[in-house]
């Protein structure tokens, strides 16, 4: 979804790599319908006894108990639909009620100095939840050219991620039509809360 530059050669510590992994998993789950490879990976995942670990285990169980066709149909129903899905995973929509509004312009202004650019093949605006998950991962691991310090990560998170994605993930978790994606919503909601708390320390 995003153009990537030469990744920083600096090493990412284990905690930050774990953050990157969760952001990238959320990005993949939200970016496009699941395929057989993703379902296979999900079924092999295990979680610990934390709330986030339990959500990961629930997602693994959902992947094991859902056919690929049903998971793909659910994605289409939730995020695409006939004209529009049941949920609209864009920052401008959540913050203003409309697409392509000022939150998107502010995001684009903040992306440029960080070396982040949308892939020209992607039609969705940059404030899609999947794109923002990818951006956060890239800021942490240097995908866009440099590993960004926590101050930069926090500023970007507060401005463009924490301002609306917790509400989106809660809506996904509580959507009556979500089955496979219900634990995705729970995982996202819990992870956003963990990130918010960590940034405030």
TrEMBL record:
Gene3D superfamilies: TorD-like. Coiled coil: none annotated. SUPFAM superfamilies: TorD-like. Keywords: Chaperone. It comes from the Bacteria. Transmembrane segments: none annotated. InterPro entries: DMSO/NO3_reduct_chaperone, TorD-like_sf, TorD/DmsD_chaperones. The keyword Chaperone applies. Pfam families: Nitrate_red_del. This is TorA maturation chaperone TorD. The lineage of its organism: Bacteria, Pseudomonadati, Pseudomonadota, Alphaproteobacteria, Hyphomicrobiales.
